[in-house]
Amino acid sequence: MSGQVSPQADIPQAIALLGKLTPILRALSADNVSPLAVCQLEKIGRSFLISGPLAKRMPDLLARSGSVRLHRLQALVGWMAGDTAATLAETAGGQAAALLTVCLVDMFCRNSTGHLLHDLSFKLLGPDDCVASMAQLSDLADIIANKLRPLAFGSHLISCIGDIHRAYDAMGITVPLETMMSLRDQLDVERMVELLDGVQLALRDENVFVLINGFRGLGSIVALLAALCPDDLQVLVEGNVHIDSSRPSVIVSLVHDTQETKINVEQVLRDCKTTRPLPVLFRPNDAQTHLERLSTFDRLSLSTEGCLATMVQDQLSKVSRGSTTAAMASFVDLIAAIMWSFMGTDFDANLSRFPRHGLRTMLGPDARDRIVDKLGLYFGVVVPLINLDPDAAYDNFSRSMSELVSDSIGSCSQCLGPRIWDIPPASHPHCTIRRVQESLQELLGRAVLLCFVDTHLDTLYMVQRFKNKLGPHLCRRLLVRAGVLEHSDEMTYPVSQLHADLCQLMAAEPSNAGPGQNIIATTSGSTCMLPAALLKPMSDPGHMVRYLLLDGQFHDHRAYYKALIEEVNIPPRCLAEQSINGAPQPMVQSQLGIHQGMTLSLRPFHNSLAVRAMIRVSGRIIHMSFYDAHLAYMATSVAASCGDHPDELFVPDVVATSVEAPAASDGRLSIVLSHDNVESQFLASVEGVPCLFQGSSCLGCMMLDARENGFQLLIQS
Q1: What is the 3-state secondary structure (H, E, C) of 38-79?
Q2: I need a labelling partner for 522 at 20 to 30 A (CA). Which of 181, 560, 606, 678 fits?
Q3: 341: how many CB neighbours lie within 10 A of its CB?
């Protein structure tokens, strides 16, 4: 018998251990992150002793797991319990790492944050603990930051920079605009690593402090430090105490005429001070090198109330130090006038691609109140909605901008013309005034898009680069109306583009589920944007289009998904050959054409959830495209209210149809008998066919309207 003894594995104990780890492994699998990256990030956080109001909110925000069930779809929007972020909430190191991460992602971007955390690991941790790659840390940083958007670090950052501006104004010190704008410059990744290494050392060692002198880039640094460790931060503005603390471990001194910014880590040993200067290099100004950027940041989380005012003010501050109140008010008046007065032909002359009365139709019967309320919320001003002439509002805004902008700002005299936006986009791309004008185009489009969105969120994740096509289109139409530009048939903006702009409004990227897919709803990783019709189709005497912005991501308790999609090649519904009510007879309000039920189902497809829509009508099950039905509904016009009673009407040449086949063959006029059935009215519209919804009109006036204006499909209300 051999003297060697082979140890036996404790199989039951190993299985029990795996059972205990299953919940966290399931959560990490759903987030698609590396467990080793999570451990490494938590160890980084142990080096930072965070404090202040943002730090106190970390446990609740990281651990929250509420979800909203989309009963119609049998899916969820929200956060799964015990996910990656929730695991970080369990330790002080995890909370500190999460707060640091969300600040860095807003200041830099996900990839640069991964690079920074990777390099910082080698400063703070041992070689055996640095096991995650830059890509894994980037993915983890994005996931953590997405869940912490309610912190609104962007609003915090802009507020800190604004406080510095106001401090100089209070002291009566005039700082050149270019110098003041340099406050938001950022250290490059390597230098930020050095700074954070010095800060964590100062927070843990009473004999060490960090001293930062200068001006350039200190606005961003103050915002970061005020988020991480306000109890250990002291800020001096031209020698005057601006922010004080009981134990100033980090001291920032702003002096506007200093030529360079210096960072020193200093140590006091027996009354002898030793200084270790850190090299200071700044990142290139992305807003100048990347012309599609609104600012030096990639994305910012801003408080919902006044978010657009914050962004507009940020742009106007680049060209003027004076009061921007008049320019802001005239800008909001212009947006309101456009939304109320632009007709369908200002977007697309084809009645099947945009409702004839423009945005008012889609906003619904309370369009005026909605414009006032929404613009008031996002801009923080009272919207009088008195000047409804977009041409006059445009002239007023142009004058306000001309009075606001200093002649010394522009690189040429052309950009200071009497009409804003009348310089071709390719002209003078690096001119500050031209860049601000293009940014205002983008923000004009966002303001209009947000008026279609219902949300209860206190924070919005605003992408800092040009995304939507609506703003530039509306500005071109303004120039056409003013006689500056010639009208072009290519100058169109159909409802399909409006839907696409809404889906990408909150920084969501298109799904990469593959070609041949239409995108119905999207998630940015922190919020979901979806048509309200997915939950409950909305048709009433006024017709309306709404989108919902919800906290969280699409999930099914097992995995998160990037979008709701639908196949492109779903065949359209057939055309009606004859009336469903038999021989020609008087047309009356009827439910003969409604369906018996609609089913929406979801199935996983790559990183998305694929939608399948089926309706039951006349004993048959019909597969149809929800995407096409939604776009057709958006493009449907509403007949004018006439006050007559919707009595019966004898129209022998009109085909009475149902939801099964709403449009008649051979281009004949048809009417869907969908009286008093909200869902059938939503399904009755057909893409590519000019549709007219009855609304508060009588049958006779609706028929007359259709014949005079070229509508082919009528929908009973």
Answers
A1: HHHHHHHHCCCCCCCHHHHHHHHHHHCCCEEEECCCCEEEEC
A2: 678
A3: 18
Please answer whether residues 530 and 546 qualify as being in contact, where contact means their C-beta atoms are separated by less than 8 angstroms: no
Query: Is-contact 417 479, C-beta < 8 A?
Result: no
Q: What angle do CA 571, 572, 573 make, to 5 degrees?
A: 120
Token couple for 486: 């010639």
CB 463 within 8 A of CB 529: no
3-state secondary structure of 88: helix
* Sequence ranges of the domains in the chain: 18-149, 154-283, 291-503, 567-715
Q: Report which of 73, 99, 98 is spatially closest to residue 87, judged by C-alpha positions.
A: 98
Q: CB–CB of 672/693 below 8 Å?
A: no
Number of Cβ atoms within 10 Å of the Cβ of 42: 20
Q: Which residue type is seen at 43?
A: K
Judge whether 234 and 241 are in contact, CB under 8 Å. Answer: yes
The CA-CA-CA angle for residues 508, 313, 506, to 5°, reads 10
Distances (CA, A) of 686 to 418, 493, 653, 663: 45, 19, 20, 7
Q: What are phi and psi of 467, to 5 degrees?
A: -125, -45
Residues of the chain with pLDDT > 70: what percent?
86
Report pLDDT digits (tens) over 32-64.
Answer: 788 889 999 999 999 999 999 999 999 999 998
CA 612 to chain centre: 26
Buried b (16+ CB within 10 A) or exposed e, 241-251: ebbebeebbbb
Cβ(391)–Cβ(481) under 8 Å?
Answer: yes
C-alpha span between 445 and 466 (Å, rounded): 10
Alpha carbon 177 to its chain centroid, in Å, reads 29
